[in-house]
Amino acid sequence: MIETWIEVIFNIIVAIFLLAGSFFLISSSIGTIRFPDVYTRLHATTKASTLGIASLLIGAFLFLYIQHDIISGKLLLAIVFTLITSPVAAHMISRAAHRVGIKPVTKNRTDEYEQAIHKQKQQQK
Amino acid sequence: MNSLLNVTENIILIATIISITAIGISLILLVYRIISGPTNVDRAVALDAAGMNMMGMAALMAIMIPTTKLNDVILLIGVLLFIGTIGVAKYLEKGVIIDRDLD
After folding, report:
1. Does B48 contact A89 at a Cβ distance shorter than 8 Å?
2. Closest by Cα among A65, A69, A52, A64 to A18
3. Does B15 sit within 8 Å of A32, measured CB to CB?
């Protein structure tokens, strides 16, 4: 009796996790379409995608644990790996974009990374 | 009691179908950004996001056809996505993927 109640509650939790993850993924994709710049697109993509992927994989993990009695360590490892490597990849891409020479859209403020590089070069001389 | 259990399992199935549809629409939007990105860096960003969506699609497929063989696929897509993104970023930055002078 109590086991069926636990199973019902976990099924609803799995459905909520899946819907939340797909919502964050599609919102990150809409941000990739709508934002005007490489850096703002990275801002939309990497954070919302990381949250959505973590939520979807937690949902899949709970589903496998409830339905098949399997504790899948690979899914947990995939969550941890995504949380570690996604900011690193975004940082590499943004630095590559700045070195290629793409100017950020700067309304009411200046390019602070460019100023920092300029100041460092002046200190080295 | 068993009818309530069946109802919640159907809720999981419907949620999975809705999520697959949403990720499909998301992939279509990302393919638009990949094709018509103004620069190559935009294409790299959109490819990164497309790989993330592929991981989610594999997880949803593992729920849809109840199997456990797809967990390796999810982990492998994550690892290859990271290595591919780093390679593309290094290529766009200097034109040299493996450089020996560690600056």
Report:
1. yes
2. A52
3. no
* Alpha-carbon span A14 to A59, nearest angstrom: 5
pLDDT at residue B102 greater than cutoff 70: no
Q: What is the DSSP string of chain A?
A: -HHHHHHHHHHHHHHHHHHHHHHHHHHHHHHHHH-SSHHHHHHHHHHHHHHHHHHHHHHHHHHHHHHH----HHHHHHHHHHHHHHHHHHHHHHHHHHHHTPPP--SSS--HHHHHHHHHHHHH-
Q: How far apart are CA A86 and CA A49, in angstroms?
A: 9
Beta carbons of A25 and B56 less than 8 Å apart: yes
CB contact under 8 A, B44 and A15: no
Confidence tier at B98 by pLDDT (50, 70, 90): low
Give B32's contacts in chain A (Cβ within 8 Å).
Answer: 33
Report pLDDT digits (tens) over A30-48: 999 998 888 888 888 888 9
CB B25 within 8 A of CB B58: no
Distance of CA A81 to the CA centre of its chain: 12
How many C-beta neighbours within 10 Å does residue B66 have?
Answer: 10
Measure CB to CB from residue A11 to each of B8, B44, B66 and give the nearest one: B8
What ipTM was assigned to the predicted interfaces of this complex?
0.85
Closest CA to A9 of B66, B7, B67: B7
